[in-house]
Amino acid sequence: MRGLRTMLAATAALLLAGAAAAQPTVKIGLIIPMTGPFQATGREIEAAVKLYMAQHGDTVAGDKVEVILRDDAGVPDTTKRLAQELVVRDKVNILAGFGLTPLAMAVAPIATEAKIPEVLMVAATSVITQQSPYIVRPAQVLTQTSAAIADWAAQNGIKKVVTVVSDYAPGYDAEKWFTQRFKEGGGQVLESLRVPLANPDFAPFLQRARDAAPDALFVFVPAGVGAIFAKQFVERGLDKSGIRLIATGDVTDDYILNGMGDAMLGVITAGAYSAAHPSDTNRKFVAAFEAANPGMRPNFIAVFGYDGMDLIYRALDKTKGDTDGTKLVEAMKGLSWESPRGPMMIDPETRDVVHNIYISKVERVNGELYNVEFATIPMMKDPAKVTAKP
Ligand code: PHB
């Protein structure tokens, strides 16, 4: 009897100690490609998430923040399986990351069923946010940058263009929105070429583009792939052909730009972020990122990962630590803040990002290649979601 009583007392003491120590936890399942052809995307996001937490702490509104990182190697079936496991077994409150559109799409039904936010840190096809009311995108939309560079080209003496895009959903957005806006501005698209996403060989497409003799080539490839494109562009002699290169900012992303070489000098892009963005917030961000990751420059994906964490922390602040998924999504709607990219907002109607799109030129600055911004389209919405005026 005495033994039993002692045991019960000990158990009660343990339970009490447990209760006192237990702090509510918010679990974030971060699914990104850490291996495979898109591993640079994963590395940039992981570094940015770590930096954000080092700067802002691992507690928000009384909740302890726990990030559970999973590598999907960029394979949609794996993304889906990992998301299911994170929801069912690890009981995550939020899913985040997703290095490509098909990976984000694969998780949409899981977010809807689990009623938890799916925070897009990369995937940029316009329709993704319509696949689930739980999807929120602090990244970018391809329609924004493609429309912006089309307007710039039409207004700057470019009359004939060949488009070259990766053959998957964001490429179709880029092709469609570039073509539509360029035509509206009086331009002509001579050919629309689509290059396989996996192991791309640009050579035959570049030859066709050259034969069409346009004023410019418009290019979209996802982050990282621009390095392969630039190499083949130079090998084919297109840098000396008099055909100008215009692109979405994905092509000259800051992670690879320096390695792309001087052939990229003068390339004009439309993008949401440049490591050379001249603001105090960005200068501090770049300095801290480079100090924590020697030899690595933050690109737009790093900023979208950082802002994804900022969005989550701000939403938790707003719900006062309530981790209910529906409340978190509601809290995310309409949030606005100053990011390293500049001002940004989550459109309360579409859950999509509203931010500046910058027109930039590749220049050499202090011995390194940068996208130097020279014009701004302020607080641009996804043009595909702006309802036409009657
Ligand atoms: C996408 O798959 O949606 C995607 C990935 C990387 C980019 C742009 C779009 O740079």
Quick structural overview:
Helices cover 41% and strands 24% of the residues. The protein is an alpha/beta fold and 390 residues long. The chain starts with a helix and ends in a 10-residue tail after the last strand.
Q: Detail the poorly predicted runs.
A: none
Portion of residues in helices? 40-55%
Distance between the termini: 83 Å
Q: What's the average pLDDT?
A: 95
SS elements, strand count? 15
Specify Rg, calculated over alpha carbons.
23 Å
Write the SSE topology:
Blueprint: H1 2-21, E1 25-32, H2 39-56, E2 59-60, E3 63-71, H3 76-88, E4 94-97, H4 101-114, E5 118-120, E6 135-136, H5 142-155, E7 160-166, H6 169-184, E8 188-195, H7 203-212, E9 216-220, H8 226-235, E10 244-248, H9 257-260, E11 268-271, H10 280-292, H11 300-318, H12 325-332, E12 336-339, E13 342-346, E14 353-365, E15 368-380
Parallel strand pairs: 1-3, 1-4, 4-5, 5-6, 7-8, 7-9, 9-10, 10-11
Antiparallel strand pairs: 2-3, 11-14, 12-13, 13-14, 14-15
The structure holds P-hydroxybenzoic acid (PHB).
